[in-house]
Structure formats: structure tokens, C-alpha cells
């Protein structure tokens, strides 16, 4: 399969919805091609849910949306068994997590107990309910949105759950020309509802196989390990990246290389995905006086290229 037309079709379609957000669209496509979960963090009203809906529709995946609230229970996600008098037995009614894409809207408005219900689903692609383990559909993605932590009624996601998200992106306010297009254009919700699937069900699997086939040279692996070691040095962050995070980072770099039209990973690919892949996993040292993303960029500048 020629991957370029498929990738171009899906990015072009998403860019018609997310005007002026080409970089965030590209990161989102990289995340799903790499088989990872996506966290979209920003202020209310900047298009987080719109992007999540557009991604699910464009990839041609069956999806369900859950509005996370303080009273949402774990069983509201995973499902529950109800006694059926006709069968004289309990029948399991699957929850919205049994979809190819779960849109977890405002995930940090739910209690930590409900947030933790997603951990097994995100890591193992299965859920255990009432002692029975049930597999989730394949593929399975969580696309979650969250408001900034200082918003009223929000709970910070635990580090263990943040580590399950391959990428975290922010949308930010639109530029003036992009905002004018939003003001005079059609309603984004109507456009999303009318979106056709840009990929057939088998296309995503083929693209993910193409990602796995992207070559990684030994010097590139050395550079990756140097970057991982830098996060653990204590100079930049309180704690470094885990081996799981390093594996996820390499998957994202492979997907980035594929989107760039290369069959091998270059240092530029690693540098491109590094901030969105690791900033949410790390806490800067207190004396740095910078946010995690700025600290990642400073670290990139300090680590020699191969």
C-alpha cells in the first residue's frame, strides 16, 4: 500500500476542521498511527472535543463519547451485569469503553477512582469486570480532553495514567486569520458530523505495519538513549523516563518518519515528537524556573547529535 496518499487524505480532511492547527493535527495522526492514546489539554472552547470527534470519524473507527463528571462511576465506563428473569441469569451490558475509540471528554473532572478504571483498558486493551476479563475491540484508542489543573472542579491525573498517554498536545487560541475563518464559516459540529471516513478499516492496520517497518540505525538508538539518560541525570527533571516511555517514544518517532516520507528514523523525527511525548511524564527540577516543555527543548539543545 502506498502510504503517502492515505496520510495526505486524512491530514487534509482534519485540517479543514481544525483551521490553523496543522502541527497539532500532524501530532494527532502520528499518535494514532503509532498505536498510542492521545491527551488534548487546553482551556474550554478551543476545539479539543472537535478534534477528538474529527479524528475518530476520519480514521473510520467506531467511537463512543463519555462526558466525565464528578459523579461518574467506574461501572458507567466498563459496564455492569443485570439479572435477566427470562434467562434466569445475569447478563453483562458492556459500557462505552467497548469501542474502537473512547472519547473521554474532560477526563480530569472525574474522581481518581473513575480515572483509574481506564488504566487496564489503556495498557492491556481489556477490562476486568466482576472477576471476568473481557477483551476490547481492536484497535482501541483513548482520546481524552482535559482542562488546566487550576480550573474549578478538576482532579489532576495520576502519573501512572499520564504515562499511558503516548502524546499530550495543546491547541491554544487560533491566529487572527484562522479565527476569522471560524467566525464566518460553517458550524464545526455540523462539519464534523458530515465527515466521511478517510480510511477503510484495513488501512489503519496497514499503516501501523508500515510504521513498525521503519528502520532505526544504531547511531539513532544511541541518540535516543542519550536523551533518555539526560532525563534521568537530575539536571533537568526530578525523575527520568521509564523504559516503557522510551519504547513509546521510538514508536512515535517511527510514525513521524513515515509521515515525513522516510523509511528510516532521523534525529529530526525524535526531536519533533519529544516534547509532546515526554513533557507530560516529567516534572522539571524546581530551580529550572521553566515548564516541562521548555525544559525538554533546553535538554534537546544540550544533548549532542550523533
List its salient traits:
46% helix, 306 residues, Helicase, Ruva Protein, domain 3, alpha/beta, 5-stranded parallel beta sheet, 9 strands, Rossmann fold, two-stranded antiparallel ribbon, globular, 2 domains
Explain what the structure shows:
This protein is globular. It has helices at 3-17, 22-33, 48-58, 74-78, 112-124, 159-162, 176-184, 188-193, 201-212, 218-231, 243-259, 267-278, 292-302, and strands at residues 37-41, 63-67, 79-84, 89-94, 101-105, 126-129, 132-135, 141-146, 165-169. The two termini are 32 Å apart. The longest helix is centred in the C-terminal third of the chain and has 17 residues, at 243-259. The chain contains 13 helices and 9 strands. Strand 6 and strand 7 form a beta hairpin. By secondary structure, it is α/β, with parallel strands linked by helices.
Amino acid at each position: 500500500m502506498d502510504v503517502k496518499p492515505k496520510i495526505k487524505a486524512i491530514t487534509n480532511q482534519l485540517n479543514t476542521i481544525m483551521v490553523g492547527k496543522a502541527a497539532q493535527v500532524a501530532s494527532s495522526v502520528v499518535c494514532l498511527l503509532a498505536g498510542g492514546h492521545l491527551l488534548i489539554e487546553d482551556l474550554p472552547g478551543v476545539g479539543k472535543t472537535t478534534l477528538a470527534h474529527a479524528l475518530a470519524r476520519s480514521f473510520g473507527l467506531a467511537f463512543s463519547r463519555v462526558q466525565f463528571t464528578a459523579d461518574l462511576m467506574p461501572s458507567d465506563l466498563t459496564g455492569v451485569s443485570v439479572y435477566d428473569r427470562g434467562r434466569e441469569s445475569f447478563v453483562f451490558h458492556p459500557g462505552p469503553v467497548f469501542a474502537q475509540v473512547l472519547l473521554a471528554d474532560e477526563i480530569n473532572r472525574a474522581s481518581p477512582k473513575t480515572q483509574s478504571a481506564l488504566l487496564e483498558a489503556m495498557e492491556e486493551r481489556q477490562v476486568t469486570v466482576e472477576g471476568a476479563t473481557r477483551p476490547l475491540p481492536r484497535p482501541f484508542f483513548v482520546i481524552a480532553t482535559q482542562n488546566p489543573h487550576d480550573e474549578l472542579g478538576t482532579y489532576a491525573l495520576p502519573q501512572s495514567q499520564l504515562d499511558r498517554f503516548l502524546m499530550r498536545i495543546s491547541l491554544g487560541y487560533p491566529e487572527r486569520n484562522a479565527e476569522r475563518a471560524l467566525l464566518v464559516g460553517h458550524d464545526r459540529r455540523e462539519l464534523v458530523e458530515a465527515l466521511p471516513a478517510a480510511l477503510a478499516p484495513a488501512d489503519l492496520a496497514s499503516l501501523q505495519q508500515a510504521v513498525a517497518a521503519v528502520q532505526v540505525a544504531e547511531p539513532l538508538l544511541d541518540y535516543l538513549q542519550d536523551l533518555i539518560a539526560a532525563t534521568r541525570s537530575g539536571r533537568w527533571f526530578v525523575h527520568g523516563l521509564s523504559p516503557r516511555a522510551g519504547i513509546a517514544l521510538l514508536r512515535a518517532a517511527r510514525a513521524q518518519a513515515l509521515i515525513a516520507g522516510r523509511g528510516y528514523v532521523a534525529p529530526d523525527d525524535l526531536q519533533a515528537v519529544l516534547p509532546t511525548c515526554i513533557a507530560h511524564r516529567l516534572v522539571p527540577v524546581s530551580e529550572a524556573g521553566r515548564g516541562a516543555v521548555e525544559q525538554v527543548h533546553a535538554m534537546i539543545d544540550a544533548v549532542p547529535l550523533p
